[in-house]
Amino acid sequence: MTTPLIELRDIEKHFGSVIALAGVSLSVLPGECHCLLGDNGAGKSTFIKTMSGVHMPTHGEILVEGRKTVFDSPRDAMEAGIATVYQDLAMIPLMSVTRNFWMGREPQKRVGPFKFIDFDKANSVTMEEMAKMGIHLREPAQAVGTLSGGERQTVAISRAVYFGAKVLILDEPTSALGVRQTSNVLATIAKVREKGIGVVFITHNVRHAMAVGDRFTVLNRGKTLGTALRGEITAEELQDMMAGGRELADLAEVLGGTV
Amino acid sequence: MSVEADRNPESSPQQAARDERVREISPVRKALIRPELGAICGTILVFVFFLAVARDSGMFSADGALNWTVVSAQFAVLAVGACLLMIAGEFDLSVGSMIGFSGIVIAITSVTWGWPVWAGILTAFALALALGWLNGYLVIRTGLPSFIVTLAFLYILRGLTIFASIATTRKTIIGGVREAAEGDWLAPLFGGKILNGLFVTLADWGWIGKLRNGNPVVDGIPMLVVWALVLIVAGHLLLTRTRFGNWIFASGGDAQAARYVGVPVNRVKIAMFMLTAFCATVFATCQVIEFGSAAADRGLLKEFEAIISVVIGGALLTGGYGSVIGAALGALIFGVVQQGLFFAGVESSLFRVFLGVILLMAVILNTYIRRMITGER
Ligand SMILES: Nc1ncnc2c1ncn2[C@@H]1O[C@H](COP(=O)(O)OP(=O)(O)OP(=O)(O)O)[C@@H](O)[C@H]1O
Ligand SMILES: [Mg+2]
C-alpha cells in the first residue's frame, strides 16, 4: 500500500469551550482527490487550517509521508509541500498576473551590478503554466482584477503546483462560481491530480464532489461520519450524511423530493 | 522620457494559443493605457496653455526654463519618496517638518558648533533615516494608520526644530552656512552646478543669452535637478524592474496576501519611510547650501505638495498602484503651473484655485484609467 502524502489521526481542536473538531482522521494519497464535505460550521475550515499549519491541534498527530510532524507555522507546512488556496485566494487584484504568480519568489537576472526581475522568464512560465490549466491569457501583464473568479482560482492553483506542492488544499473553490467557471475549476483539479499531487477539495456541493472525487469524507459537528470510496456511495447518501440524514429526509417529503 | 523607450517590461509579445473570447487590444491603445496617462495628458495641456498665454514672458527662455525646472525638481525629489511610500500603502505627513529639522541640524552642527559641513550633512542624514525608521516602526508596531503617527511627528519635529534653533542661537534662522561650506568636499554634491562649460559654449554660440558681465544667463545645471533625475530613474527602475519593487506593490496592494507568500511587508514599509526621510533631507541640504542659511520654518506644507504630485501622477491613495514617472510628471505640472502663473502675471492667489482644479481633474481621469487597467469596480 502506498504511504499517504499526509495523514491526520484523531485530530481534536478546541477553541476555549467550543469543540470545533472532536477526533477527525483523514489521509491523502498521491494523485487522489479527497473530498471533504460537511454543513456550515461542521469544522471543515478548522480542519484544513490544522493541516496547513495555521492552527495547532489540541490533540492528535500529523504524519507527512509517514513521518510524524508538527507544523509551527503556515511556512512549515508550505515547505513540507502543503499548499492551501483559500477562498480569498491571496491574490492582489491591482497587480498583474505575472507579478502575482511570482510574488515572493521572483526570478532574477543580473544586469551589471544590479539584479532585475527576469520578466522574459517570468512571463513565459506564467503563460505556459496557465495554458496547461486551459486558460489562455491575453497577456501576462493583465491585472488579476480583470480575470473572472474561476480564472483567479486557476492562477492560484497553478502557482501552488508550479512551486512544488505535493498536497493541494482547496477551501470551497467553487462556492462563488457559475456553471461554466465551476467546470473550469473542476477540470483544473483533474489536471492537478494527474500530476500525482494529492488534492483536498472542500465543498458543500455533492455534485461537484461526485464529479472529481476519489474518496469522500463527511464531517458533521466536528466528527467524521466515515470515509467512502468512489462507487461505494451515491450522491443521495452523501447528501443525507451531510445534513445529518433525518431532518433532510423529512424535509424532502414536505418538498416532494426536490432537495 | 519617451513613451516608446519606457515600454512596459511586463508586456512581452510572444503568446500561446489565444482564447477566442478575449478581445484583441490594439497596440496603440495598449501603449496609451498606462498609470501615467493622466499625468502625460496634464503635462501636455499645461505646456500648451502656457505656450499660448505666456510665450513672450520669458518663461521659455533659458533662464525662465531653469526657473521652473528647479521648482519642479524640488517637488520631484519629495514626490519620488512619497510615491513609493504611498504605493507601499502608507503616508508620511512629517516630510515638511523633516525638511526644517534636517536644515537646522546642518546649520547648528556646522555654524554654531563649528563642525566641518560634511559631518553636519552626514549627521542630518543619519538622524533623518533614524526618524524615518521610527515612523515606520511605530506604524507597524501600533497598527495605527500612518496618517496619525506621522501627523504626530509633523508637530513633534517642528517643535523640536524651533526649540533647538532658539536654544542654541536665540534665532529661528541660522546663517553662515555658505562660508562654512567653502572648500568642503561633500557640500558641492548638493549646492554645486554641473555642465558649466557646456553653457559657456552655448552662450558663446549665441544659443543662450549672456549677462552684462559676460557670463551666460544659465551657468550650469543645479545639483538639485541632478538629484531629482537620479532619484526618478532609480525609483522607477526599483519599482518596476526589481524584486523589491514587486514587494512594494504587494505590501500596499494587500499586506496579508503578501505575507502569506513570504513578502517581508514590515521591512518594505519601514524602508519606504526611511526613503521618504532621505528625500526630505536631500531637499533640505540642497536648500541650506544654496541659501547659505537654515530656517526652522522651512518645508511648511511640503508633505501635501508631494502627495498632490503623486496623486496627479496616477497613484492610488490606498496603495498598491502608482508610478514614479507619473509622480515626476505631477511634480513638473505643479512647478510649471506655479511659476507659469507668475510669468503670465496672474494674481498669485489664483494659483491655489488652479491647483485644486488640476488635482480634481487628474484624480477623476486617473480613476477612470485605473479601472480600465485593473478591472477594479
Ligand atoms: N478561531 C475560532 N474561535 C472560536 N471558534 C471557532 C474558531 N474557528 C472556528 N470556530 C468554530 O468552529 C466550528 C467549525 O467552524 P469551521 O469554520 O471549521 O466550519 P466550516 O465547516 O468550514 O463551515 P463553512 O461551511 O461555513 O465554511 C464553528 O462552530 C465555529 O464557530
Ligand atoms: Mg469554511
TrEMBL record, chain A:
Gene3D superfamilies for the chain: P-loop containing nucleotide triphosphate hydrolases
GO terms assigned for molecular function: ATP binding; ATP hydrolysis activity
SUPFAM superfamilies xref list: P-loop containing nucleoside triphosphate hydrolases
Pfam family, one: ABC_tran
Stretches that traverse the bilayer: none
Residue ranges annotated for the ABC transporter domain, each copy included: 6-246
Keywords, ordered alphabetically: ATP-binding, Nucleotide-binding
CDD domains associated with the record: ABC_Carb_Monos_I
The protein's name: Sugar ABC transporter ATP-binding protein
Automatic annotation (TrEMBL), chain B:
TM annotation in the entry: 37-54, 66-88, 95-115, 121-140, 147-166, 186-208, 220-239, 270-292, 304-337, 349-369
Keyword Transmembrane part of the UniProt annotation: yes
Highest taxon in the source lineage: Bacteria
Chief localization: membrane
Entry keyword Membrane: yes
Cellular component terms (Gene Ontology): plasma membrane
Pfam families in alphabetical order: BPD_transp_2
GO molecular function, one term: transmembrane transporter activity
Compartments, record wording: Cell membrane
Topology with respect to the bilayer: Multi-pass membrane protein
Keywords recorded for this protein, A-Z: Cell inner membrane, Cell membrane, Membrane, Sugar transport, Transmembrane, Transmembrane helix, Transport
InterPro entries for this protein: ABC_transp_permease (IPR001851)
Cited function: Part of the binding-protein-dependent transport system for D-xylose. Probably responsible for the translocation of the substrate across the membrane.
Protein name as it appears in the record: Xylose transport system permease protein XylH
